[in-house]
Amino acid sequence: MVHVVLLSGFLGAGKTTTMLAAGRAFTAQGKNVAVITNDQAADLVDTTLAKNELDDVAEISGGCFCCRFENLEAMIKQLIDERGAEVIIAEAVGSCTDLQATVVRPLRKLYGDVLTVAPVTTIVDPSRLRAMIGDESDLGYLFAKQLAEGDVIALNKSDVHGSSLRAIGKELGAAFPHARVLSYSAATTEGLDALMAAWDEPATADIDLEVDYDRYAAAEAALAWLNHTVELGASDAPFSPASWAERALAEVSADCARSGYLVGHAKVSVESPAGLVKLSLTEAGKPVQTDRTAPGTVLIATATLNLRVNCEPAALDELVRRAAEAAGHEVGAVARSTNGASFQPSYPRPTHRIPAGASFPRESPGHSHRLLT
Question: Boundaries of CATH 3.30.70 in the chain?
């Protein structure tokens, strides 16, 4: 049986870091591991990073797993048939919810004889939790639904928040008694074994989440989404890709803080002859985090920026243009944008939505059961 692990959680919670850490751990156990990244658009920083860490990496873009369920089926089949995957870790879009009804139940009911689906894990950044709990906005509504449907609520960044997570865990356990609540650090892997062990246990409850899809759609549309490519060239002498990336995200951080924009996440990767650089930002006005760096200077490089910011798309485009140019001036590089304009996600329309306890015909009309052939 192939084991599918589905990771949920708001933007910037650390899903990718968790996915890669777990992927390495499963590989060390001798298991053949594949991962699937997911986004509303192509050109993901996370996919680039994953390909530098693991052998089998796939990407589903153009919508969340629930709205691209047939793509998810096909990708799982390909990873099993062509790559021999034994464990598949799938990281859902950070603005997605209702996964129990739209992804987990369809997979279990259609393919329960060839797949096991782990309890849904909602990964949480404790800093974001403090800011979002009690928030009556549409984004707050979405965040609360992600918590409510988690079989496992995993408080990430224990290396940063330490003993304070004990009290937070107790509060979450009282608010969501159906869920296993645990803390860990994806960065240091402390507590990762306990999280992975939870994926082998049965789900504690068949959660039937009530979701107002108008509010869900409004929450996604509150964020401008940008996947953007920038070609960098030396203006005179070789430049440092790591320095450019750090300065570009620092400019984004400061600009968003001045404008009062909420940052869902901001990520940048730079590929060059020096190697791969990857940095991230999860809160306006805060320092940039270096996830992977490569010392050295180069004459050319290609940068990919993924930003999810609570502003109008045109404002985000202008913000990124200023940041790229300002960083270029500081490090001696010319920045030329080659593609990518900000957009707002369309209304979520899942392929399936199965309530708890509902029957699901094995020969659903128009369904080929591709995993079974």
Answer: 223-339
Q: Number of helices (H) and strands (E), helices first, in the chain?
A: 13, 14
pLDDT digits (tens, 9 = 90+) for 99-142: 999 999 999 999 999 999 999 999 999 999 988 888 899 999 99
- CATH code of the domain occupying 2-218: 3.40.50.300
| Encoded amino acid at 29, one letter | Q
CATH 3.40.50.300 domain extents, the chain: 2-218
pLDDT digits (tens, 9 = 90+) for 260-312: 999 999 999 999 999 999 999 999 999 999 999 999 999 999 999 999 999 99
Sequence-distant (6+) residues with CB within 8 A of 82 are none
What is the rounded end-to-end Cα distance, in angstroms, of the chain? 15
Q: Which CATH class is domain 223-339?
A: alpha beta
pLDDT tens for 71-98 read: 999 999 999 999 999 999 999 999 999 9
- Whole-model pTM: value is 0.92
Helices (H), the chain: 15-28, 45-51, 69-83, 99, 105-111, 126-132, 138-148, 158-161, 164-175, 192-198, 213-221, 241-259, 313-331
